[in-house]
Amino acid sequence: MLLSEIPKEKILWMYKTMLLIRKNEEAVEKYYRIGKIPGSLHLYIGEEAVAVGVVANLNREDVITSTHRGHGHFLAKGGSLKKLWAELLGKRTGACKGKGGSMHLFDFENCNLGSNGIVGGGIPHAVGAALSFKLSESKNVAVSFFGEGATNQQNFHEGLNLASIWKLPVIFVCENNQYQISLHYSKQQAIEGVAKRGISYGIPAVEVDGQDVVAVYEVVKRAVERARSREGPTLIEAKTYRFTGHTIDDNELYRNRDEVEWWKKNKDPLAIFERKIIEEKIFGKEVLEKIAEDVEKEIEETIKFAEESPYPEPEELFEDLYSTKTKGTLIWNWE
Ligand SMILES: Cc1ncc(C[n+]2csc(CCOP(=O)(O)OP(=O)(O)O)c2C)c(N)n1
Prior knowledge:
Bound molecules: thiamine diphosphate
Mean pLDDT: 95
Number of domains: 1
Low-confidence stretches: none
């Protein structure tokens, strides 16, 4: 697909969002290292093209579910940077009122059913959302992001099977960044690649270069069309790479520095996209530089906001932990 086939405003949005995700993760890393962010931290640097290439095809009403590496998905789906930072710092203005932290970023306003510390935990949520779309005859779709490690987990297999037999409007997006903590994916499964797993469930599957946002955009476009026209689910394996350790405290003894440097030098999704934009004469360098300036400013202002926000009061600790009555509407009487 040529860039000129994508509307210019969308290209701008894609570039800005990828840059925002990258610069934000870099700022979060710095902040964590000076002891300002409690809990664990899984950065998304290197994988930006997947979240952005996918979400560029979605409407606000389409649902996503995310992972423990979820800052990028949250921002791509329209989540507020301020709510993200306030959540990281444990402040009341955060996405989960300061009680979730990095791994639990929910944003119902933008139909993000949340990131999740349970590997593969978002898959049943996406399948459930897709079932509700089918039963209510809505045209919305659900997307579940997960890592390749999650494809060895039972939620993946049950989710794909149900989605297939019920022909649900759901897209399974596997971000194959090659490592499950310290284990290379070739040691996690006997067959090569995740996409092949679609065969056993009768689900069309495709492998795509996850470092090329245009390639991701193109395959997801087709998957979304399939879902909206009730043709059923699709499995997408985006081949990607995390440029940082599994968590921020990972000493990465399981992989070679040359390998990491090779990916940074040759497969940086931002550099690849920037080159395409310039070469295909979509925008000039000065437009991209202005976006970079705006992004830096937005992050700076956001950190100030999060720092100045209050912590929750101790008596708020037990609020919002359990759901009470469902706010859903009964759309199917199962008696
Ligand atoms: C059900 C479950 N099993 C194990 C873990 C421990 N764990 C946390 S992250 C992780 C690796 C996940 O790898 P992958 O799904 O490929 O995602 P990535 O971290 O590479 O993005 C594991 C095993 C967990 N959180 N949940």
